[in-house]
Write a structure and sequence with these properties.
Length: 365
Amino acid sequence: MSVRLKLTLSYAGFLVLAGASLLAVVWVFLLRYVPEVIDYPDPPGSWRPGPSVPDRAALEEAFVPKAGLVMAFLLVFGLLGGWLLAGSMLAPLTRITHATRRAAAGSLSHRIALEGRQDEFRELADAFDTMLARLEAHDDEQRRFTANASHELRTPLAITQTLLDVARNDPDRDAGELVERLRFVNTRAIDLTEALLLLSRANQRTFSREHVDLSLVAEEAAETLLPLAEKRGLAIETSGDLTPTTGSHALLLQLTTNLVHNAIVHNLPDQGTVWVTTGVEAKKAVLTVENTGEELAPQLVSTFTEPFQRGTQRVRGDHAGVGLGLAIVKSIAQAHDGTLTLTPRAGGGLRISVRLPVAPPGPGG
């Protein structure tokens, strides 16, 4: 049976049961207060007979048929009313089911937009609309990412094919130069593939969680990239207290390394600075990386976390990466239930903050 039919039968059954109970109460009182036979003698000296009062048998004969009619009426009324009420109550559920089927068929743009007062069905519909909006945004992001990844992976293969065609058509060409260029292109393709795998791992959250101190992770990342900063004439300054959180040490180190590397590469040509600070603010473990550089528009900064998006105003070079650095940072932060905030600095450069759930200090903290 359908839910509507079940509700109809339940409503009708409850109404009939309530009516039968009420009639039973009336009947019990009638049996209690009405004797089986009532005999009134004629008043003395009166030519009129005594008052005619029905006895119990007469009451039964009059009450039972009418009670049956009332029960039949309650049954019919309960079935009709129950059917209409059940249909009215289940109408929002029907709309939700219709939207679910459309979503299953691939239409994520449809919304229920249930109107009316805030009840359980309205909450369910609003929650479903929110889920559809997130799924649609995620689907669009995945489509853009797939298209961009295909384009980025196709580029080194096309370059390699071109170099090989040139070498085949020109046998006297210097083989050493060709091998070096092929090696550079191949290294670029490997870096891109590894970045894609890391991004996929962060999105899937396939990692075990452990206690991590962001201050130690920041020092490790800064020490690793110090030679690159010195080569570019930049200074790295780290500061901060104990900043405990939970997550994957390897992924959080990759997050911090990407941020520091981004701050070094996209900096002033000379005499620039990178600031790496950690701390606990409002029960959040905060990692902040700032760098000097050119002035950036807020509209441009908002696109930096998109995969393969590189700002046209930013400096490009041999260490510019594959366009996935900040996209990986964003995915790792989200996988650790954190947030990523990018803000242009007033004097030029960029300020990036990662806020993660704070954790109690470890056994040695």
